[in-house]
Amino acid sequence: MSRLKAFSVLLGGALVLPSAHAGIELIARSSLSGSLSDFSGLSTPLESGIAANLLGGMGSGLAWAGGNTFLALPDRGPNAAPWSGGDGFDNTTSYIARWQTVTLGLTAIPSGGLPFTLTPTLTATTLLYSKDTLTYGGATPALNGGGKNYFSGRSDNFDAGKNSLNALNARLDPEGIRVSNDGKSVYVSDEYGPYVYQFDRATGQRIKTFALPDTFAVANLSGKGATEISGNATGRVANKGMEGLAITPDGKTLVGFEQSPLLQDGGDGGRANRIVTIDIASGTVKQFAYDNQISGKNYNSSEIVALNDHQFLVLERDGKGLGDGSDAKVKQLQLVDLAGAQDVSGLSGEAALLAKAPTKSTFLDIRAALNAAGIGNDKIPAKLEGLAFGQDVVIGGVTTHTLYLANDNDFLATVGGVDNPNQWFVFGFTDADLKDLGAGPYVAQAIPEPQTSMLTIAGLLGVAGVARRRQGR
Questions:
Q1: What is the pLDDT of residues 42-100, one digit of tens each?
Q2: Which of 48, 186, 327, 385 is the most buried (most CB within 10 A)?
Q3: Can you tell me the mean pLDDT for 418-432?
Q4: How far apart (Å, rounded) are the C-alpha atoms in residues 55 and 419?
Q5: How many C-beta atoms lie closer than 10 Å to residue 368's C-beta?
Q6: Cα-based distances in Å from 123 to 29, 103, 292, 306
Q7: Distance CA 181, CA 372 (A)
Q8: What single-letter DSSP state applies at residue 433?
Q9: Cis bond before residue 74 (omega within 30° of 0)
Q10: How would you label 183-195 residue by residue, b for 16+ Cβ within 10 Å and e otherwise?
Q11: Looking at the predicted structure, is the pLDDT value of residue 207 above 90?
Q12: What would the pLDDT profile of 450-462 be if each residue is shown by its tens digit?
């Protein structure tokens, strides 16, 4: 099939590939260099000397936005490398929170032994701000003004007189992202508060705050995560707050969780996490227990997506692999069903929560699937964190659902002399696969398909200068 013909098939609807497909497997992968710049236009270096427009951390969160458009969410910015003067606030900087809009174009042209070619193209950068006056610590973004107060990654941007749920704190460490069904709003979860905010997709302005229970807050705040942990007995663990975020297919409910159990439930390394559901219209919050143990070991949870209105896939992983200089060992998707699960809002402690935790099962061993595609354990990203469903494709006459997985490269283009790019992996699964796993049905979120822009077309065909510089394979 010619590239132009493949492109026309894409515009017409689902992609069609003649070969057979069986089981959940990798169907495409691609990457973007970690040394590129985004479209923010921020040319002044951060306090650490790192460029404020570095295109990194794109897989901290990943949201499908209709068609082949996705929102890629960096976290609080580059702080993996220590810098002089950054000790008091964990080497964080005044990096302005943002999401990147990318097209992840699948074409039915085999590449690298996989059935599809995946072409990522950066199309926009959206900076996040509030009309409300925010509390900053040692650094106020120079871009502030005109009624725009930008959120930043500095861990000392808080009001010490209030608990961590204060919505006027300027610090934001975004980790989860989802798009509303009308395509106009974006929901972002954060580790600092923990917060869940609603932003206007067109402007990046915060338009709503969802209140979480006080039991998730810490009372004694610090710019240093270790100090914040030792200074509190209840609430979220510092740097391990609201990590994952899902939205039900009907667009009515947000579903998220902490990266690790609350301090009162065992803290970091504990087994009993909490899944939180938020009714978007009313703000009503419910809580459900989640057992994060796999084969006798407890793992932090990185992301969650909604298979339907009651079944969810949870990404659990170790911190091993590319970027860590080691070999990946555990990267799994676990299936959990909340149908009939009891609200545990009034319970506290690991034992009480585990008694109410619904059973879970392995949906996909990611490491094994990547190994089967020829990707060694040392090449599997250590921090696989972003997860989103995408457009269906057709393989061998069978409708195949797609699941996109992305990494957080910590804004480090290389680690130990080894390239450490922003990466995406696309898995395909069918209704028959779901039936075999005792899951399903899969219900896709109904988001309007964006109009195909000239930049998107250029990225797919590889002919425009800007798009060609941005795309990678």
A1: 989 999 999 999 999 999 999 999 999 999 999 999 999 999 999 999 999 999 999 99
A2: 385
A3: 98
A4: 14
A5: 11
A6: 19, 7, 36, 26
A7: 35
A8: H
A9: no
A10: bebbbbbbbbbbb
A11: yes
A12: 754 323 322 222 2
**How distant is the alpha carbon of residue 46 from its chain centre?**
23
How far apart CA 246 and CA 387 sit, in angstroms, is 9
Cα–Cα dist 112/28, whole Å: 9
What is the rounded distance in angstroms from the CA atom of residue 462 to the CA atom of residue 3? 10
Cis geometry, peptide bond prior to residue 421 (ω within 30 degrees of 0): no
Give CA angle at 164 (293, 62), nearest 5°.
55
Domain that holds residue 156: 3-470
Report d(CA 399, CA 395) in Å as an integer.
Answer: 7
Q: Torsions phi, psi of 32, nearest 5?
A: -130, 135
Provide the domain count of the chain: 1
Structure tokens at 97: 């929170």
Question: For residues 410 and 76, is the Cβ–Cβ distance under 8 A?
Answer: no
Q: How many CB atoms lie within 10 A of CB 322?
A: 27
Structure tokens at 124: 């926009």
**Closest-CA residue to 222 (of 214, 232, 213, 212):** 232
Roughly what angle, to the nearest 10 degrees, separates helices 454-461 and 3-12?
Answer: 140
Contacts of 52 (CB under 8 A, 6+ apart): 40, 42, 43, 44, 45, 46, 95, 96
Q: Distance between CA 301 and CA 196 in Å, rounded?
A: 17
The CA distance from 109 to 404, in Å, is 18
- CA-only gyration radius of the chain, Å: 21
Q: CA torsion sign, 212 to 215 to 219 to 220? A: negative
DSSP secondary structure letters along 239-251: TBSEEEEEE-TTS
Q: State the average pLDDT for the chain.
A: 91
Bridge-based pairing state of the strands 174-179 and 185-190: antiparallel
Q: How many CA atoms lie within 13 A of 405 on its CB side?
A: 30
- Tell how many helices (H) and how many strands (E) occur in the chain: 7, 28
